[in-house]
Amino acid sequence: MGYYKKISQKIECLLIDKPGTEQSLSWINIIDAGRKEIDYLRKEYNFNLEYLRASVATVFSQRPMVAEDNGYLFLILHFPTFFKGKIIAGEIEFFIGHGYLVSLHNDNLPALNELFNNAKKDQNSLLSYNTESSATLLYEILDRLLNSCYSLIDQNSLAIEEVEDLIFEQQQKDAVAKILNLRRNIINIRKIMQNHKNILQKLMSMRSSLVPPDSLKKQYGHLVEHSKRIWEMLDNQKEMVEVLNDTNESLLNDRMNNIMKTLTLFSVIVLPLTLLAAIFGMNAKYMPFVDQRYGFWIILLIMGLGSWLMLYYFKKKDWLN
Prior knowledge:
The chain has 9 helices and 7 strands, in the order βββααββββααααααα. The chain is of the alpha+beta class. The protein has 2 domains: 3-252, Beta Polymerase, domain 2 (2-Layer Sandwich); 255-316, Up-down Bundle (Methane Monooxygenase Hydroxylase, Chain G, domain 1), CATH 1.20.58. A 7-stranded mixed β-sheet has the order 1-2-3-7-6-5-4. Helix 8 (217-280) packs antiparallel against helix 9. The longest helix is centred in the last third of the chain and has 64 residues, at 217-280.
């Protein structure tokens, strides 16, 4: 019978053992691995020290990888996760051998934590309960993590609709910040997911008894299809955001042009007033209208007539619309 054991504060072990079978499968789940956890794995499994160092929580690998060592596979993958208002990469390492699977990750992959907690309560919920295969368990974990990406993509879709509403409600300034945040999130997810398909295909093509058997090729093919579908959806969202950004910039430019047009018209209309005020403000001798009784009002009338003529000209040219 299977059982659950908490080896230390950060190390949990789930023994998957179906009654009536000779073999069993151990799932060792480690969160925020440190020196003690690395020493434990080194002692119990004699893993390559280079791979163990790459699995420390404070070390972040810049690229995914899959490698085969002495009787086990080592796998590094990244999955997008939402953290403090932005999407970041959650890294997970796997050591996969006959009868065991070790997963190491930070506490920022809720989908994996949920799967492990459900398995603790009911091992029958796992596909690997029937097969007791580490390849099957790896498939379940990757499938759950890939499915969690869809919720992030759905959030992006909702944000795109919100941005579209803001743009056509003439709230361009609010839309700018949301567009920038959307572009950052989409770029981050694309950067995280871009190599998943290649890693999975490389895993399936490796000649090793640890890679998925023929009976699991179809399931792992579904993971590759998931990766392709996620990438296509991200491509569509990227194009939509670019279109919305262009639309928003066009509306902002149009608003700016209208403002500049209004200011230009205002300055041109005021130009005759300024010119006449400067002319009649000179201390020249024999200035017309200056010494007359109604000279001030005549000058004002001339200035008003000049502005009216400018307005009439603009109206005739249809420049005021």
